[in-house]
Amino acid sequence: MVSTSENKNYKVIGTRPIRHDGYDKVTGRAQYGADIKLPGMLIGAVLRSPYAHAKIKSIDTSEAEKMDGVFAVMTSKDLPRLGDVVRGNSEESGSEKHLSENVMAFDKVLYKGHVVAGVAAKDQNTAFEAVKKIKVDYEVLKPVINVDQAMAKDAPILHEDYSGDHLGKKVKNSNIAAHARHEIGDIDDGFKKSDLVVEKEVDMQTVHQGYIEPHTGTAVWDEEDRVKVWTSTQGSFSVRDSVSKVLELDVSRVKVTPMEIGGGFGGKIPIYLEPIAAVLSKKTRRPVKAMMSRTDVFDATGPGPGGKVKVKIGIDSEGKILAAYADIRLEAGAYPEAFIEAAAKCVFSCYDVPSMKIDAYDVLVNKPSSAPYRAPASPQVAFATETVVDEICEIKGYDPIDFRLKNVAEKGTRTALGPKYRTIGLKECLEAAKNSDHWKSNLDSNPSPGKKRGRGIASGYWFNIGFKSSVNLSLNPDGKVALTEGSTDIGGSRASIAMQAAEVLGIPAEDVRPSVVDTDSIGITDVTGGSRTTYATGYAAYNAAHKLIEEIIEKAALKWDISKDHIEYSDGIVKSKTDSELKMTLKEIADDPPGGPIVSSASVDLEEAGGGFAVHIADLEIDEETGKTDVVNYTAIQDVGKAIHPSYVEGQMQGGAAQGIGWALNEEYFMNEDGVMLNSSYLDYRMPIALDLPMIDTIMIEVPSEEHPYGVRGVGEPPIVPPVPAIGNAINDALGLRLLSTPMKPSKITEALKRKK
Q: What is the pTM of this model?
């Protein structure tokens, strides 16, 4: 770890305690979505469209309804038809109509796997058999499965009734859901003055988050006309809001209990099965649980968007960037939201560029509606930008780190969307990369006959969101502190939140007992995602802990009958400033506090956190005959602000890098011309496993964020951004050929080698 600030004398922050939920996870006691069992519970199943684009002419459910053991059948007729009201959800955009239609198709199916009906039965086999008896008459339409097809003249239109926002104008009968533009300076003048201009276009395929746990949804529509939901989600309040909209219920009539989550990476934010289970429960007056298969997850849940990104950069004779242009076209899937605003924020984020123009297009295609995938849209644009930067360095003979340092974004640099950076640590990351053992090591370019080695480097950025979080604290009679929060725990956030409260209170992390609770038991808390949780919920815990100290001092003042101004608190001890005999431990003050229990609560609604930057170095070995690529050495460097729990920070950096390597080398939605995914299993959708990767070395740079009392920056998003371009640059270094589409798999490498010869 490298710190660029004075090391503060923290007692808890920066240590590595055992995570509070660790024992439950390793012993199997932790309860996940599929583990829920309720009295009288039925099993739900859904019928999915075999077509990527088709009109629904009729649905006949009569045969399914007659089956023994079938309690209810539903179609979209059982759901209210919603309008084009914007959802108003801080995590997801789009309309309520599209939210509902993605849960269950009304008039058209827009991707293979789109739900058209549901059943509730006594057991799973009966439910599956009943689904097969539902007859749907389709009028099959031609699908569009990439941005080129969708934006072509006379392309089949997914939403004839939808008006897209094209530079502030409403446009109908277009698959472009949105066209946004951001401009700073005069790029025409910048390119005219440039000594060198390089332009490249990259093509990214659709990829899936690859979480181990499939989606589930269990619901009870009870006698009080309330809906209770149990689900695996990154945001229980997001589920509550979405379910209430789809079912046209007040939010207070929906209670969501988040179960443990078996991975998400952004893909466990949208709702899928929960409203269906709720409607089936209303029809049957029984609890209903529905679960997805692995194929369902691939076919019908939100992947990270594919698309095309074109970047042009001009530099002067001294190697300073003068102008940059980006054309970003990302696949939204069946409904709007390809994260083009995030893409625009990130595309030139690592550089000080005086003149920029960015055109970004949110493009509808016949694939499942896109969901966030760890720094959504930033890896896509980084692939283009960092490829162009590497090409500039190759043409001009620049050292790739020195060129980046010459043009590095720093505090005060104006971003593409207008605001200036506050304190950021990209420069320190680049300097650490330059001084790393990896960068200084010699690369054996010919390790053995028929094989080549290459080294690549790339930078990446994520802006880190803020939003709402709530935390409650309660001092128990044994002196331990109970912490309740609304942030679901994916990567150790129970520990990181508890540790921040413990640091304020001056007690061991183990003495703060965190619990993630349902939506009726805590204040509104936005999703665990966007690298906001340790930052925002941690800030709420920090504030709640200070309020708890105030409560402790007030109770001690009552007990001792002295002014609270004469009392101080430090490291779990409350004492008089003037009388050394007056002293109590937390256990003593909590045993019988005057005036009632000692509790506190705090909430925050924060702006974006200080941005997070990463620099990755990749060494590859490539077999020229087969095109097989092995990652032989990999280092991830990242500005982490302040590492609350260094082990989990390292894990986030390594996990993000591993996923990014998968994007670069193996992973893709392999689709046929009919819009059917042909590799919808983990056997065929090739994700990296431990045997595919070396130990990923980490270098943590600590440049504290100005926005947080402990300097926290979110760390979960940036590490997935640099791997794709770093891998691409390493391939070019090894073979002298530039691959501009993902995945950079063996067949593409051998084809490119043949063309080169």
A: 0.97
